[in-house]
Amino acid sequence: MHQIKKIGILTSGGDSPGMNACIRAAVRNALFNQLEVVGILEGFNGMIHNKFKKLQARDVSNILQRGGTILRSARSKEFMTKEGRLKAFENIKSRGIDALVIIGGNGSFLGAKIFDEEFGIPYIGLPGTIDNDLYGTDYTIGFDTACNTVVDAVDKIKDTAASHNRLFFIEVMGRDSGYIALNTGIATGAEEILLPERPTDVHALIEKLSEGKKHKKNSSIVIVSEGDDGGGAIAIAAQVNKHFQQYDTRVTVLGHLQRGGVPTASDRVSASRMGHAAIEALLNHKSAIMVGILNGKISHVPIKDAIEKKKKLNPHLFEIKDALSI
Ligand code: F6P
């Protein structure tokens, strides 16, 4: 790999709180090491449509505490075409960009991998998604903030649930990963947690809710991951209602509010560490890896593994949920 002089940085896929902290850290560490930095706006679309912006230290001032991404984001359909990628390559070459830092999830990493295989552009992926679904890192940027947002919402719903003797089904994001559901289910003391990783058994769920009633519960919370095989909170609530009428039932789909907001201190610190480490990795001639944090230390994961390997849920959290919700 020849010596890198100018890097391009972009955010791609669903935005997540902490992406700005990550951009700031990568930009500042690059400048600290005398590299030039170009911000690429709107993800891979920006490479195709020439949306570039030179970034200096002051351009990333006061963004650490802001949700969203100052570079904006997109899920680029054009970048999935060979023609789109060729345009992107011509544009970054004409600007003298010789390496990329890509903050995003699985789909973004796959795009970067194909681009590198076709045009030989060194890149580092950084895990930016609330879903925490990437192999090789304990946390992804935004997961902690999203979990805190969910916990705050469920705590509020519990006040009204208890006042009205109600059963609430609360749907959380996560695509096909149950990380947000499992962690927030434990953190809010949910009666049941339904995840894509485990088949949903409506009869077992009704049994559990009946047991709760017998043990004098006057309200219950079920956290449902959007990717659950039961079809989501609305569908599952309807099925439960058919056979179990001991509660008045309500459904809340939390949706995109989980993606916004002020990043937690934990997300800011992880994002800053990873953003900094991405530049170190490029300076050490690394490419085609995701930089994450594993057991408290910076990890380097081959991008192929980050994309293809399935991250396992913490089995301990699943084991303890039944005992904690009697
Ligand atoms: O990957 C992040 C995420 O928020 C998922 O949890 C969710 O399934 C998806 O993105 C929603 O995508 P969009 O913002 O395109 O509707």
Explain what the structure shows.
With 326 residues, this protein is of the alpha/beta class. The protein has 2 domains: 6-142 and 263-308, Rossmann fold; 144-260, 3-Layer(aba) Sandwich (Rossmann fold). It has 11 helices and 11 strands. Strands 3-2-1-4-5-10-11 form a 7-stranded mixed β-sheet, with helices on both faces. It has a 4-stranded parallel β-sheet with strand order 7-8-6-9, with helices on both faces. It starts with 5 loop residues before the first strand and ends with a helix. The relative contact order is 0.17. The mean pLDDT is 97. Bound molecules: 6-O-phosphono-beta-D-fructofuranose (F6P).
Number of domains: 2
Number of β-strand runs: 11
Major beta-sheet overview: 7 strands, mixed
Report the top-level CATH class of the largest domain. Alpha Beta
Helix content: 40-55%
Strand order of the largest sheet: 3-2-1-4-5-10-11
Give Rg in angstroms. 22 Å
| N-to-C series of helices and strands | EHEHEHEHEHEHEHEHEHEEHH
Q: Which small-molecule species are bound to the chains here?
A: 6-O-phosphono-beta-D-fructofuranose
Query: Can you tell me the CATH architecture of the largest domain?
Result: 3-Layer(aba) Sandwich
Could you name the CATH topology of the largest domain?
A: Rossmann fold
| Gap from first CA to last CA | 58 Å
Number of helical regions: 11
Low-confidence stretches: none
